[in-house]
TrEMBL record:
Cited PANTHER family: FLAVIN REDUCTASE-RELATED, UPF0659 PROTEIN YMR090W
Protein name per its UniProtKB record: LAQU0S21e00848g1_1
InterPro entries membership: NAD(P)-bd_dom, NAD(P)-bd_dom_sf
Domain NAD(P)-binding: residue ranges: 7-197
């Protein structure tokens, strides 16, 4: 199963591409911004195509991902500059969704962020505009007709994955807590979501590290 990964040179993206490459089921197509990033990934055994999402048309993005069976979005502008929040986090994501539809790919896994549906949690923070963009992109994906899974991780960290996630009812109960998760756990859960569309399709799933083994978490989402 061929999986196009937008944001493949990023921290979650690299971990995800390695996990997909090492699986027996998946073959990643890394979509990265530059030729240098593509070469580095190719040297590690991952197919890669260079494309600047913000500067590309939907047709150009479609041409890159045509023939894939699923798309993962784990890209972001990574900052608080308004123009790039518009061109990348909002319009870039929407262009990827439109390209997925044009390429007749059904499956789309989005990495969003925890609490994007809850304005009270972010309206007065420096990340307000990022959250507005992510919330809007999530809404568009949810009504796109694609077989979506929206993953909403807490703050990302780059230590080794724990393999354990916070149960959804615990997340609900502890609304005031600060949630975090290792990037490796996000990448591994994306692989699980791709492996089990019957459990994850058409779902929006908050992710934080906790006590529940990931496979058990999968059965209660
Ligand atoms: N940081 C957090 O605490 C947090 C919390 C919740 C959710 N998230 C979300 O989790 C996801 C993964 O995060 P991460 O830490 O892995 O992100 P990251 O390391 O910043 O990776 C993002 C990737 O997107 C790429 N990108 C940006 N603009 C692009 C463009 N125009 N064309 C092509 N590629 C472009 C970047 O390419 P370059 O390397 O060339 O810039 C980078 O490789 C993101 O969607 C992020 O919003 C993050």
């Amino acid at each position: 199963m061929k999986v196009a990964v937008f944001g493949a040179a990023g921290r979650v993206g690299k971990l995800l591409c390695s996990a997909l490459r090492d699986s027996e089921v998946f073959e990643p197509l890394a979509v990265v911004r530059s030729g240098e990033q593509a070469s580095a990934l190719q040297e590690s055994g991952v197919n890669a195509s260079a494309l600047d999402i913000e500067k590309s048309t939907v047709e150009e993005i479609t041409a890159i991902i045509e023939g894939c069976d699923a798309v993962v979005w784990t890209a972001c502008s990574g900052g608080i500059a308004m123009d790039r929040i518009f061109t990348m986090d909002l319009d870039g994501t929407i262009k990827a969704i439109e390209a997925t539809q044009k390429a007749k790919i059904q499956r789309f896994v989005m990495v969003s962020a925890i609490n994007v549906d809850n304005r009270e949690r972010w309206w007065h923070t420096a990340l307000k505009n990022n959250f507005i963009a992510k919330r809007t992109a999530d809404r568009i994906l949810q009504t796109s007709g694609l077989q979506y899974t929206i993953l909403r991780p807490g703050s990302l960290h780059s230590e080794a994955g724990t393999g354990k996630l916070c149960a959804l009812d615990s997340l609900e109960q502890k609304k005031s807590c600060h949630y975090s998760i290792e990037r490796e756990d996000v990448a591994n859960f994306i692989v699980l979501a791709l492996t089990h569309p019957e459990k994850t399709a058409f779902k929006t799933i908050p992710l934080a590290n906790g006590e529940l083994p990931m496979r058990d978490f999968l059965y209660v989402v």
